[in-house]
Amino acid sequence: MTRARRALTTLILGLAVLLGSAAAAPAGPCDDVPATVARTVENRTNSSCDAGCGALRNLGLSGPVPDGTGIRGGGQLRYVDQWHGECQISGGPLNSQCKAPTACPPGQEKFQDGGVWKCRIRVTTQVPNPVRAECEAAAAAAAARAAAKAAATPPAPPASPALKQIASMIARGRPLGEIQAHWTAFVEGATKGGKAVDPNALIQWVLQESYKQQKEDLKLYADKVKHHNEVKAKLREEIQKGRQAQGGAPGSARQEADARLRQLEDKLSTVGDDAQLANLDLQNALQRQQQAVQAMSNVSKMMHDTAMAIIRNLRG
């Protein structure tokens, strides 16, 4: 399990325990977790022999062909050495002719693997998101625990700017003393003149609102990562199409295609850097939210103790 997955799972489990039934929240805890994620697999093959030699075209061969391809009239197109860097005809009347560097089919990249020239292509597919499965399992467990409780959930208090501010402070991880000062001021104002308040309902509403704000913050970072990944996928698609069209382009058209490919590759590199930064921001946000969840039990106890102390003083 990656660090981001562990942080997200801890966040969901902690909030499910603190807030009770997921049905009471404005949205399900897994709504913002994608059902699938992109997985890229690299397929590698041996480099191919270039059959572009005129003598081979006359015999019906063209383009990249595998090592050992037989030639009509005798002989084979074989690697020159163990590094698979070049091929030539071996045997037959054309022996040792048509020597040329090895090549790869359109859309594949030629590279060295332990000194041996090979071809590779990256294929991206969508697979089920394991984080979503963990999230749904955690939400189901939290819902089962909440359903087993006999006590009914108290009604949520009406929203107020002061309560929203306190919820925002909790979501952003503000110091406990600063949160307590604002909470004390709110409860003293709410109970002024002997008005009755339900501390538990107030605390639950504030924690739910804090969770909502944390989800909104996380969604902003997740959307940013998704945008960069979509841009990268489109650029890779354009680059692949450009490489396929590049080989058959004549003269000036080929130069324009080369220049266009360089621009796309430079842009892909820039977007890749931005995507890495966005992923780092997302992981940092997850870490901050995990810390906020860990602190919520202390925050909840402080709010309850403070409210009860104020109420007891009014009654005394």
Structure description:
The protein is α+β, with helices and mostly antiparallel strands. The chain has 2 domains: 45-123, no CATH class; 155-315, no CATH class. Helix content is 57%, strand content 15%. It is built from 7 helices and 9 strands, in the order H-E-E-H-E-E-E-E-E-E-E-H-H-H-H-H. The strands form 3 sheets. Strands 4-5-6-7 form a 4-stranded antiparallel beta sheet, with no helix packed on it. The protein has a 3-stranded antiparallel beta sheet with strand order 1-9-8, covered by helices on one side. Strand 5 and strand 6 form a beta hairpin. It is rod-shaped and about 115 Å long. It starts with a helix and ends with a helix.
Topology:
Elements: H1 3-19, E1 36-46, E2 49-50, H2 54-58, E3 64-65, E4 69-70, E5 76-79, E6 86-90, E7 100-101, E8 109-113, E9 116-128, H3 130-147, H4 161-171, H5 176-190, H6 199-246, H7 251-315
Antiparallel strand pairs: 1-9, 2-3, 4-5, 5-6, 6-7, 8-9
Strand order, main sheet: write it out. Answer: 4-5-6-7
> What is the makeup of the main sheet?
4 strands, antiparallel
Number of strands: 9
Tell me the β content. 5-15%
Question: In sequence order, what are the helices and strands, one letter per element?
Answer: HEEHEEEEEEEHHHHH
Low-confidence stretches: 18-26, 150-155
Shape: rod-shaped
Structural class: alpha+beta
Number of helices: 7
Mean pLDDT: 79
